[in-house]
Amino acid sequence: SIDAYNRGLSIMPASPEGLSGMAQTYSRAGNIDEAKSLLNQVLKAHPDRIEDLLMLGELYIRTDEIQQGLNLLWRGEAKKPSAHTELLMATAYMRLKQMPKAKESAPWPIFSARTATMRVQLQLSRARRG
Fold this sequence. Notes:
The chain is an all-alpha fold. It is 78% helix and 0% strand. Helix 4 runs antiparallel to helix 5. It starts with a helix and ends with a helix.
């Protein structure tokens, strides 16, 4: 909970793990702006934290700051490739109506825009459930 992170951060205010955990908690609670602020703070001090970079990219995409989110995802993908990141990038390009880039980024062959949309929705649904 936020209170637990606040207690921990009162002892170690610059803890990247504490700030990152608090950002995740804020994100789950729907306070995306606060989550983005905390992740930016973490990454300013610790630019090598790839998971935080990817999470921040995803949050930017969720708040329709798609190009900024894509820039972060590309940086993370260059250091730690993953199907999840590729899926997020494909989804972002689809939202920008850039289907060639979406197809290029997708972690599977895309046969049609409708099929791609259905697959992305299924993958995102699975990713959210854990």
